[in-house]
Amino acid sequence: MRLNQNTLLLGKKVVLVPYTSEHVPRYHEWMKSEELQRLTASEPLTLEQEYAMQCSWQEDADKCTFIVLDAEKWQAQPGATEESCMVGDVNLFLTDLEDLTLGEIEVMIAEPSCRGKGLGTEAVLAMLSYGVTTLGLTKFEAKIGQGNEPSIRMFQKLHFEQVATSSVFQEVTLRLTVSESEH
C-alpha cells in the first residue's frame, strides 16, 4: 500500500516499518520454516516470487503491510539495519469491497526467541490504531488456524470475539468492532 510507504510506527517494544525489498531475504528465510507455513497457512515461495509478492503488496491499494522490528534492538544499535532487527510482520487487508470499514488483520512473530513477550500484541494494537485513524476502519477480523492457540488467545485478550469456525479451512474467525468513543 503506497499510503504507508513513508510511515514508521514506534511503540515501546516494536517499531513498524513498511515492507521493502531490503526485508525480503530475511522474510524468505523465515517462510522456509514448516512451522510458520503451518501457522500462517502459507505455501513456500522462491526468492524471486517473494520479491514479486513484496512489490505487489507495496503497490496494491487493499494491502497494508509493516515489518515488525524489535524496538529495543533497533534503538540500542545506532546504524543497525532494519533487517537485523526484524522479528515478524503485521498486515491489514481490505477484503470486502462492499464494506470499506472492514479490515482483516494478521500478525506473525517469526523469531521464536521473540514470541510470548508481547511484541505481537503491541504490533496488533499499533496496526488497529493505524487502521482506525488512517484507513477509516471500524471493524477488524482475524482468521486463525484452529491449532494456533497462542494467536487465538492473544486476539481474545484484545477483545476480539469468535464469530465463525470453518472446518473446511480449519480456522476460526474473530471480530472486533471499534465504536466512535474508542477512537
UniProtKB/TrEMBL annotation:
Its EC number is 2.3.1.308. Gene3D superfamilies: 3.40.630.30. Keywords: Acyltransferase, Transferase. It comes from the Eukaryota. It catalyses: N-terminal L-methionyl-[tubulin] + acetyl-CoA = N-terminal N(alpha)-acetyl-L-methionyl-[tubulin] + CoA + H(+). It holds the Pfam family Acetyltransf_3. The keyword Cytoplasm does not apply. One of its GO terms (molecular function) is tubulin N-terminal-methionine acetyltransferase activity. Residues 14-179 form the N-acetyltransferase domain. Coiled coil: none annotated. Belongs to the acetyltransferase family. GNAT subfamily. N-acetyltransferase that mediates the acetylation of the N-terminal residues of alpha- and beta-tubulin. PANTHER family: ALPHA_BETA-TUBULIN-N-ACETYLTRANSFERASE 9 (PTHR13256:SF16), N-ACETYLTRANSFERASE 9 (PTHR13256). This is Alpha/beta-tubulin-N-acetyltransferase 9. It comes from Homo sapiens (Human).
